[in-house]
Design brief:
single chain; alpha/beta; 213 residues; six-stranded mixed sheet
């Protein structure tokens, strides 16, 4: 069944963001946003030809721009800032060297079923100190993407992904599969810059809300 994703009011979200960022955050936390794939690793290829590596980089750069435009920006770093391939081990090493307090990996999903749609958020499939915090944040972010943008929630899931496995011992860590590029509606959603900005803003709001608890 075809479902139209919400045509979100970016101005409304931005005004809300400016309001909540006017509040004081406690001790400043450092965030690493892991931009999936890159270079010769395109990731998933969309039904309309878009590539996962480009979509996640666009969203990550939009998060940075929105954050940098604020009076009190969060302390955010990316694992890559351009179309380059960074090994999984080097992504973890960078996160450790930065002594990050939170790790968020950005991806897009794919399926042989063209009707598959929605957002999945993964956490490490092992019991460590930061697992409960990761699960809580995963649920909160998934709910925000559902309510504000209309993406279906496919659940919070456990997986042994390397970037999660190597981070969960030291900090909360999640991996977001932000919709299916093999689904016509969701693939076309990512073609519009205003939608990229809206998703970036929802994620940035989620980061702020998490750090302000």
């Amino acid at each position: 069944m075809k479902k139209v994703l919400k045509n979100v009011s970016f101005v409304f979200l931005l005004l809300k963001m400016c309001f909540i960022f006017g509040q004081e955050i406690g001790a400043e936390k450092r965030i690493v946003i892991d931009v999936g794939h890159g270079g010769k690793d395109s990731g998933a290829i969309g039904i309309n030809g878009i590539q996962e590596k480009d979509v996640v980089l666009d969203i990550a750069n939009a998060i940075l721009k929105l954050n940098n435009d604020l009076d009190k920006p969060l302390d955010i770093y990316l694992t890559r800032y351009s179309d380059t391939l960074i090994s999984l081990s080097d992504r973890t090493k960078l996160t450790k060297s930065l002594k990050a307090d939170l790790f968020v990996s950005l991806h897009c999903n794919h399926s042989d079923n063209p009707n598959a749609r929605g957002v999945e958020v993964y956490v490490a499939g092992a019991e460590f100190k930061y697992l409960d915090e990761s699960v809580w944040f995963a649920f909160q972010l998934q709910e925000a993407l559902n309510k504000k943008l209309g993406f279906e929630s496919r659940g919070v899931k456990f997986a042994n992904f390397q970037v999660l496995r190597e981070n969960i011992k030291f900090r909360p860590a999640i991996l977001i599969e932000k919709g299916f590029v093999t689904n016509t509606d969701e693939a076309n959603y990512f073609l519009k810059p205003k939608n990229i900005r809206a998703m970036a803003l929802v994620i940035l709001m989620g980061l702020y809300n998490y750090l302000n608890i």
